[in-house]
């Protein structure tokens, strides 16, 4: 199971942000309803920090509101382990909300793997981070993330791993913390260097391919010419070669420098032939890559 089209998380978030703006100055009950909606929505996996900017001040004015504020922070960039260690700081979560927190935690694990240039994440690592009993429970979380289009990859039960998408982003981003900004900038610089190196390598490969194609086309043109084809056949027959050997060994790729004038014989010997200025009129001589011939 693999998907390369990740969810545009901004689309489902916008109505919620509009509702948060409308709730400014409202009572705690109204804001609580908004918070519960945010942490329960199956299409909202980021943007909790934006909600905090809008309603955070109002929430911080009461004990109940502070718990809701901490819960928003938990879903913004926290993990399931944070929840287990400090349950008293947060509102009581429903089973569905706990499952969503595990989804967010799985996204963080995959994001870390991507930053470390890993191609796969083991079920063992996910099981430990999500605090689940078996691989089946891990797969349930991963499948739900893939179906929600916040993860892109392929499950492999044989290796007990999630192989990450290689044709695009593997995970939708979560909210960014201020403490992680410097690390993100450094990662972007690293990727810039990687892309620059890849561009150099790509240019070199394209140049080499173009050179080989030119050599190949030159040989095709030579062998398709009736007179030259006859001359090649006669010359190779005199040397005990087969025309297929010429095509195979004389295409320039076996020569020491890829030189189309370098003739590599099947017996390993090779020599460079010079093309002379010949004429097809009268009894003039024609000199080709395979030697001089009388017409």
UniProtKB/TrEMBL annotation:
GO CC, any one term: COP9 signalosome
Biased composition (Basic and acidic residues): 259-270
Entry keywords, A to Z: Signalosome
Transmembrane segments: none
Keyword Manganese assigned: no
Sequence ranges of Polar residues compositional bias: 280-295
Entry superkingdom: Eukaryota
Coiled coil: none
Region described as Disordered: 251-295
Name of this chain's protein: COP9 signalosome complex subunit 7
The species this protein was found in: Phaeodactylum tricornutum
């Amino acid at each position: 199971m693999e998907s390369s089209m990740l969810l545009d998380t901004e689309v489902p978030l916008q109505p919620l942000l509009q509702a948060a703006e409308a709730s400014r100055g409202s009572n705690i009950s109204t804001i609580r309803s908004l918070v519960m909606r945010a942490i329960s929505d199956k299409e909202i996996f980021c943007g909790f920090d934006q909600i905090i900017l809008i309603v955070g001040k109002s929430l911080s004015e009461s004990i109940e509101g502070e718990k809701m504020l901490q819960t928003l922070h938990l879903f913004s960039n926290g993990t399931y382990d944070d929840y287990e260690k400090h349950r008293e700081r947060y509102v009581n979560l429903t089973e569905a909300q706990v499952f969503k927190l595990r989804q967010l935690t799985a996204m963080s694990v995959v994001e870390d793997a991507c930053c470390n240039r890993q191609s796969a994440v083991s079920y063992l690592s996910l099981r430990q981070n999500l605090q689940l009993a078996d691989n089946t429970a891990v797969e349930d979380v991963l499948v739900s993330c893939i179906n929600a289009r916040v993860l892109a990859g392929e499950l492999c039960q044989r290796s007990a791993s999630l192989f990450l998408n290689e044709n695009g982003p593997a995970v939708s981003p979560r909210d960014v913390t201020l403490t992680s900004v410097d690390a993100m900038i450094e990662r972007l610089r690293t990727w810039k260097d990687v892309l620059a190196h890849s561009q150099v390598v790509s240019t070199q490969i394209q140049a080499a391919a173009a050179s080989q194609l030119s050599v190949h086309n030159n040989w095709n043109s030579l062998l398709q010419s009736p007179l030259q084809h006859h001359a090649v056949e006669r010359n190779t027959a005199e040397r005990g070669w087969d025309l297929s050997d010429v095509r195979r060994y004389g295409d320039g790729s076996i020569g020491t420098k890829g030189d189309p004038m370098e003739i590599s014989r099947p017996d390993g010997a090779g020599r460079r032939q010079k093309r002379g200025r010949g004429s097809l009129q009268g009894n003039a001589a024609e000199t080709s890559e395979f030697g001089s011939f009388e017409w």
